[in-house]
Amino acid sequence: MFWLHAAIKRCHPHAGQANVKRNIRVRRADTGIAVPITIARERRDGARRILRRRTSDLRLHTPPRARHPAPAAYPFPVREPDSTTAPLAGSFLISHPGLLDPNFRRTVIILPDYSAKDGSFGFILNRPTGRVVGDLLGNKPLGQLSRVPVLSGGPVGADQLILAAFRWHPQTKKLECRHHIALDEAESLAAKQHHTVRAFAGYAGWSTGQLDAELAQRSWLVRQADDQEVLKLSRAPQMWRDLTSGFGPWFRMVAEAPEDPSLN
Fold this sequence. Notes:
- The chain is mostly beta strands.
- It folds into two domains: 2-55, no CATH class; 71-263, VC0467-like (3-Layer(aba) Sandwich).
- Helix content is 14%, strand content 36%.
- The strands form three sheets. Strands 6, 7, 8, 9, 10, 11, 12, 13 and 14 form a nine-stranded mixed sheet that branches. A three-stranded antiparallel sheet has the order 2-3-4, with no helix packed on it.
- Helix 4 (236-245) runs antiparallel to helix 5 (249-256).
- The protein starts with a strand and ends in an 8-residue tail after the last helix.
- Residues 1-21 and 37-86 have low confidence and may be disordered.
């Protein structure tokens, strides 16, 4: 239930009129249908007092607690953020447009490990640092690994460099992630078909129950890791926008808006 506040600048040329009503139409945020309502204003001794009309026919989006469309309406396979019915390991976590924490604002995370009991572990995929492994480990024989890009994987352990290997499964269209691999194993996997190696400075971690609580608050949108294009560095600037837009018209509208509203 919401209160609608409305003000009318000028009511009627006759100052002696006590009450004036005006019909307006307000568009509902969930259906787009224009709803007629009546707003009244009362004049007393030349002073204006705005009356509020309580209406149950209007619904407003108030992220991050706004309910997004049911999974059945999504144009791609998704997983409900409910740890009791579906495991989240191997999913993308896409930050809700209302999540303002600078550590995770407009981020896309792959979640290779999830446990309701032991916690969760993931990497941010859309924050490249502009550096390669050779810049950080120049004193080691790296071979082709020296050109592997380094991404900012998350706020935890940002002084650690973690190597991860991603494998794309064409049959099931799923992206698999193995992390904390050794240099020699990473070099071997980088030469295999459908494999991609990335390095991460830090990671995203959640303690027991922490991610479940954030999912219950709708801080994250959940989607199966079914897109191998996320590993391309050129995709990073628009990755969050592209994945968020797929959750429905409201999400598309918010995702297309500039991050700084003053630039609009």
